[in-house]
Amino acid sequence: MGRTMKSVFISLILLMMFTCNVEAASIRLSRKKLSIKVGQTVTLKVRGAKKKKVKWKLTNKNIVKLNNKGKITGIKVGKTTVIARIGKKSLRCQVSVRKIASKMTAAQRYAIESAKSYLSFMAFSKEGLKSQLRYEKYSEKDAQYAVDHCGADWYEQAYKCAKGYMEDNSLSRSELIDQLIYEGYSPEQAIYGVNRVLWCE
Question: Are the beta carbons of 201 and 171 closer than 8 angstroms?
Answer without folding.
Answer: no
